[in-house]
Every structure is written in C-alpha cells, then in structure tokens.
Amino acid sequence: MRTSHTAIRRRIADEKGKLTDEQLFASPQFAAYLTDIAEAATGRYRRKSSVKTYWDALPNADIAHTDSRTITVNAGNFLTRSFPTRSLKADSLLGIVGHECGHILFSDFTMLETYHQALSGGRFYPREPKGLSPKQERSLDEIKEFLEEKDEAVTKALCDIAHSLVNMMEDVYIEGRMCDAFPGGLKTGILLNGLRFAEEMASVTEEIEKQHHEVAIVANLLIQYAKTGDINNLDGYKGPYLNTVYECIPYIDDAAYDDDAKARFDAANKMLLLLWPYMESYIRQVKEDIKNGTDTAEAELGGQLARTAPLPGRAGRPIPGKKGKHGSGDDEDDRSQLQQVLDYEDGRLDLEKTDEIGEDGDGGTSHTSDYAGSGYVSQAAEDMERIMAQLAEEAAYASYEQELSEELQAESERIRYGNAHRGVHVNVNRMSYVDPAYMEAYRKVAPPLLLISKRLQKQVSQILKDYKEGGKLDNLPLGKRISVRNAVRNDGRQGCSTS
Question: How far apart are the first and last CA of the chain?
Fold first, then answer.
C-alpha cells in the first residue's frame, strides 16, 4: 500500500472537519490542556491539581466538581453546550476550570463545614443575627421556637436554603478572586459562563406557572443577581418576590467580596430570615418526606434551583486575601463586551439558518461554528486548533493502519505456502494504537539499533542488486570497476569486477 503525503494531509483535514464536540472536549488531549491551565493557576500558590473530563449531555447532568485535588468537568454540560460556537465552548470550559480552581485556592472548607454543622445543630454561626429589621426580628423569633422544639423538618429546610445562599456568595467571592489573579482566559471564561447562566434561567413568571416553591423562586433571583449584578425581568413581573430580592441585595454586595468567610455566613443568616415567609410549602413537603422516609422535597428543590457546581467537602484553609475588595461593578465593562459577542453570535446563527433558499422554497443551513465575525478573539482558539489537528492526525493514521492491516491480510491469503502448510491460517496483527509507554521505550533503545539496521539494509540491498543483475564476478582483466582489495596481483590480472 503506497500513500502520498498529500493524501495523508487530505485525510487529516477530512478527519478534522468531522470531529464532534464530544470527541474534542472529552478527549484526553483536551483534559491534559486543561490540566496545564489548572496546574499553572494553583501551582502559583503551591497547590496541586489535575483535570479529568467526560461527556454527559443529559438534562440534569452535573457541570463540574472538585475534591480539592482533582477537578472533574462534564464537557457536555448544559451551560457549555448552549454557546453557539466551538471557540466560546472552549472558553466556557476554561471558565469552569477557573471556577473550581477558585474553590481550591480561596474557599475556607473548614469554616464552611463549621457553619453547616452549627445550623444542623439548631444554632446560627458565627453568631445570632443582629441589627435586624422588624420583619427579620419576627422571622428570627419564629425560627428559634422551631429550633428549640428540635423540629427536624424546619431544621433541614433551613439548612438546604442556607446552603444555597452560602454557595451562591462563595461562588461570587472565589470568582472575583480568580478574575483579579488571572485576568486572561480564566477570567473571560468565568464571565462568559455567568452571563450565559443568567440567560438560561427561567423567568419569574415561568417559575410561578410551573408552581415552583416560593423560596426557590426568590433564591433563583438572588443567584441571578449574584452572577451578573442584574436581574433579567423581561416579563415585567412586579410583586413581593422582587421586593424581597431588593432587601437582600445589600447583603450580597457587602459580603460576597469580603475575604472573611464569616461575613458571608452572617449575610446568609440575615437573608434566610427574609426568605423565611416563603418556606412554608417546602417545609410541608419535607415533613411528608420525613414521615414517608423519602427525599422528594430535596430532589425537587434541587431541580428548581439554578444548577451550580457543588462546594468541595473537605477540610482546608484558603490562600490569604489581599487588601482591597473586588467589587460587583469591577467587571462591568468586560461583561458588556462579552454580552455583545453573545448577542451577535446567537443572532448570526439564527439568521444563517435561512440564508439559502432551496428549490422547494425552504430555508437551508450554511454556517461554520468557528466564524469570528464579531471580532471576538477566543482565549483557547489557538490551543483548540492544535488539539484538533492532533486528534485528526491520530484518527487519520489509525484509519490508514486499519486499511493496511486489511490489505496485508488479503495479500497473505493469496500466498501459496506449499503442501507442507496446506490448511494453515495466517493472521496479520498490527497495533493501530501505540501506547505512549511503548514510544518512550522505543526512543531509548532505537539509536544503536538504527545504526545496525542501516548497515544491514545497505548490505542486503547490494546483495539483491547483484542477484538481480546476474551476480558479481571478481578478478577479471576488464570490468566496470576496480576492486581496491585486489588491485595489485602477481598473476597479471587487474582485479576488476562486473558490478
């Protein structure tokens, strides 16, 4: 089988064009690339990390999680898949890795665990809320009565909602720290994900129509504000939910960017008092679960709340903060520019769905997912192209190996081995994939063996050439060349040869 380099390059280009998002983003090569990014970020603070990727496009699939050592990313998560171009998807995955690196570096796991244990035990941490409004005072009195009675349903409901509030502010804090420390691709990805996350959330009216728990509706509005610094209320909803959100916003603005984790715990406690009047339906369902030994309420709340990556569950202290805070408006210009890019790309792809009219009058589809007409320069575009080329090359050579194996097998079956080998089956085995360990072992032993191989090739080549031309005759009076070894003879011959 003879193949030209042009044909190989053509096949590599074809394989590159056929690569799917799953093949690219869930590949070991892309995971290695993300690991390099994570190691560079956490290694600055002498923390170790690595990244694993997989693909799960189911509606309720996880986004990512970390055990503070390994970051596991679902490359097929709903958020990344929602971006219109492959370059934006790559930046989204960078942002997810940046978010998890933020937890590894800046989350105080020990204090987070202390907070949740204290609330589960029926007390507020770091202290009972002070400086409350009359509305909050009433909620505090009611909650304390239930806690003194050790009402299991109320305690569990409070813990679930408090966990969501703390997680929300912790995400804002660690992302702010990451944006300050790494203003390049990680920051861009984090901001992109925040904008898209808010866009993907259901509106207040939609949640009301779906009969979501009231506390989930308010919590989602708070999450949306925390992620983007604004609330997307295109439906023009006006009502008590928004009023409660406006009461909570000052706590988010003050605590979400504070280096002291206790400030976020205190803010979560005060917001919990404002959300208390909306928890009745959820508490009622929790009571039913306790009675029936089920966990329907928690699962339902998880489905209604905006999906975020869970907080790591381990002990550990964060990297100390620096003086000065990362405020909620610090990234407003960057958000505005990225929002324009998203609007442009989404709108462009929608228009291109009907940019060609077929003979039957129907619209056609003609677009490339890597078009960059918005002027947006992807932070991961160049690296992604390199990885795609590597994957395409591996796929092209694998297909060639398969074809070669089939051709060799067919050739072996045409060979006649004589009566002695009649009925003997010949099977050609070739490795279509060579493990990197084998490649490394080859590089160690190859140099001296290659020298021997070249010598043997030269000798065998000469022998075959002589055989083809009828053999070689030495010690002739006349010939094509002089044999140096036999140039001087006593018998008068000249030591010529025919070769």
Answer: 32
H or E stretch including 199?
Answer: helix 185-200
Whether residue 407 is contained in a domain is answered as no
The whole-angstrom separation of Cα 169 and Cα 308 is: 12
The residue type of 50 is S
- 397, part of any domain: no
* E strand or H helix that includes residue 335: helix 332-352
pLDDT digits (tens, 9 = 90+) for 33-87: 999 999 999 988 888 899 999 999 998 889 999 988 899 999 999 999 999 888 8
Q: Could you tell me if 395 and 386 are in contact, meaning their C-beta atoms sit under 8 angstroms apart?
A: no
The CA distance from 383 to 20, in Å, is 16
> Contacts by 478-484 with C-beta closer than 8 Å and gap 24+?
none
Q: Which domain holds residue 196?
A: 5-343
Looking at residue 225, its amino acid is: Y
The number of folded domains in the chain is 1
Write down how long the chain is.
499
Q: Which of 171, 147, 402, 383 is nearest to 276 (CA)?
A: 147
Is 199 part of a structural domain of the chain? yes
Largest CA distance in the chain: 129
Q: Tens digits of per-residue pLDDT, 288-311? A: 999 999 988 888 888 888 876 666
Tokens of 317: 């202290």
pLDDT of residue 229: 81
In this structure, what token pair is assigned to residue 193? 């994900």
**Cβ–Cβ < 8 Å for 318, 178:** no
Provide the 10 A C-beta neighbour count for residue 53: 24
- 229 near 194, Cβ under 8 Å? no
Q: From the CB of residue 294, how many other CB atoms can be counted at a distance below 10 Å?
A: 12
SS3 267: helix
485 domain-assigned: no
Kindly provide the b/e burial profile for residues 120-131, where b requires at least 16 CB atoms within 10 angstroms of the residue's own CB. Answer: eebebbeeebee
Q: Distance between CA atoms of 287 and 156, rounded to whole angstroms?
A: 10
What backbone phi and psi angles, to 5 degrees, belong to 71?
-100, 120
Could you tell me the sign of the dihedral formed by the alpha carbons of 13, 19, 25, 30, in that order? negative
Give the β-pairing of 50-54 and 70-74: parallel
C-alpha count within 13 angstroms, C-beta hemisphere, residue 313: 5
Which helix H or strand E contains 101, and what residues bound it?
helix 86-106
| DSSP SS3 for 204 | helix
